[in-house]
## 1
Amino acid sequence: DNFRKRVLKERVEWERQGKEKVLRGFLEIIDNLRRGLNQPDATIGPLAEGMRMVLSQAEFWLQQEGLERVPTVGIPFDPAIHEAVARIEDLSKVDGTIVEEVRAGYRWADRLLRPASVVVVKSGDTGDKNV
C-alpha cells in the first residue's frame, strides 16, 4: 500500500515537471512572436496578421492551462517575482516602482516559472554610487 502511494505521488510529480518543461518552452515561442511583431514594418500585412493570430491562440491555450502573467508596470518591485534589469532615476515616481516590463514573467500552479524582467525607478540620490 505504501509502495503504491509513493509511486502515485512520484508519477504526479513527474507529470507536473514534464508539463512545466513544455510550458517554459512555449514561453520562448511567445517571446519570439512578440519580438517579431514589435519590429518596424511588422504590423501590417498577412504575415503579421497570421503571427498575431498564432500569438493570440498560444496565449489563450496557456491561460487555459492555468498559466498567469506576473503583474509588473505600476506596482512595487518584488524580488520574489521580478528581476530588475535596469534602474532609472525619476523624481516624480515612488522609489522601487516598476515602470517598464522588458520580458513577461509567468506563474503556474502556484510556482514561478519565470520572473518578470523589469525596469525599476530610483527616485533620487540614495548616496550609493554603485546602484
## 2
Amino acid sequence: GLPVSADVSSEDADVVAAGDALLAAAVRTTRDVGGTTLGGILFSAHAKYGAKPTAQGRRNSVAAVSRAAAVAEAAGVDLVLELVNRFESNLLNTTAQGLAYLDDVGSPVVKLHLDTFHMNIEEANPAAAIRLAGDRLGYFHVGESNRGYLGDGVIDFDAQFDALLDIGYSKDIVFESFST
C-alpha cells in the first residue's frame, strides 16, 4: 500500500505528485525485474483514516491510477487494486466500489485484486462478489478469517472456489500467510 506521504487520494497536490512518482517507479521496477503484475493498495494510503473519503480525493485517486495505468500499459504490466477492509483504507472496500472505480479509470490493464480475508469483513456474500467481478478479477488472495491456518476459521472456500470456476478465473491464487 501507499504511504500517507504518497497517498494519491489526498487533497494535497504535493502528496498526490509523490504518489504518482512512486507508482510510476513501482511499475518500472516491476517491468525491469520481469514482472507483469503490480498489485496492492495502489489507490490510497494503507492506513486507517479518520474521515470518509472526499469527492476530490477520489477524483485525485482515479486520475493518479489512470496516469499509472498509461505507464503500466506501455510497460506491459497490469495493475491490480487490492480491495481491503475499512480499517486499512476508506476508499475501496467492496467489489461494487472497485468496479465503479475501474469504470472511472477506464483502462484495460487495471483489474481488481480480491482477498478472502477482506471480503469476509466487507461483503455480504463473497462468492457473489467474485461473480460480480467476473473477468475484471486480476488477482486473488486466500487467507483465513482469523489470519490463521486455512480451515480453522469461517471462510467458505468451497463457495468461493466454485465462484472462481464459474467466472473462468485462471490467474494467480496466492495464500497470504500470517501464520508460522
